[in-house]
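Fold this sequence, please.
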Amino acid sequence: MDVLEEVLRPLIVFTGTLLVTVAVGLLVDRLLRYSASKHPRTRLPGLLRRVQLPLQILLAATGVHSTYSLAQLDLRQDEVILNVLATVAILAAAWLTIRIVDAFAENTLDQYAGRTADAARVRRLHTQLTLVRRIVTALLAVTTAAVVMLLLFPNLRTLGTSLLASAGVIGIIAGVAAQSTLGNLMAGLQIAFGDSVRIGDTVVVEGEWGTVEEITLSYLTVRIWDDRRLTMPVSYFNSKPYENWSKGGTQITGTVFLYLDHNTPVPQLREHLYDYLRQREDWDGRNWNLLVTDSTPTSIVVRASMSARNADDVWTLRCAVREELLGWLVANHPQALPRIPTALVESDSPAMAE
């Protein structure tokens, strides 16, 4: 009978605890789902449903830790098991906090995007929320590790106390040894709240044109037009010049240079450019022009300029205009294309005569 009780008691205690925690987790999920259906204007209840897994782990670890004494296992490793359960509960609480912060951040960004039509402000808020999330995650990770080490494992308390006592010396050493990392950290914060570059901005860096895809506390990733990724330290954007085509708005003016003969009918070419631009949907109609910007003894330089709504449209428009103007000249004014002057040279040399 005693043996049967020793087996049934922990089985009943732990099974009952886990069933209760699962029921509570499912109840919370049902309430969030109901709230999401009743308030379709906000995404927050639906986003908070992502916390179900860390919430279940937290409830299970906390419940088993609280009812462990009722099982009366009387094992030598009781203290170790309780510390493991407490560690799992602390880690799950940190994970739960990160999920909640993510949900509120995403909901805030979604509501702000619905209230404003300014894409630049939305990208700025996206950048700031992303970096704030990373900072919160890093702080939670450090805090969780410190709590686990100092509170749950007595053998490590002396080590933790010594580390805290020597924090000043360690801070000085780390500051000298990690100047680059700390510099990137400060640069990341300056970018997030200084509005110099944002996620989604079109930039030209080191001769490469692309879109800012990710900003972290240490590096920035640019997705280049051919789908390559250019990863650079964020401190680069505070110390070297670069082009930000999205700064001040997405509208941009593109140019096309043609090297033509002096016989080019520039007025007719200018008129054809305008007629062609009026047919293009990617031309926003703000401005256009065609000018002779330079000349040499053998050719002239013609610059066609046209405006577009964004960098993608202006690139497509530039390629189309270049192709159209050259095709029109070939079909209607072939004499306008650059020519290489050649002439026969007569020589008195017998070898050349042969």
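The longest helix spans residues 78-115. The mean pLDDT is 77.
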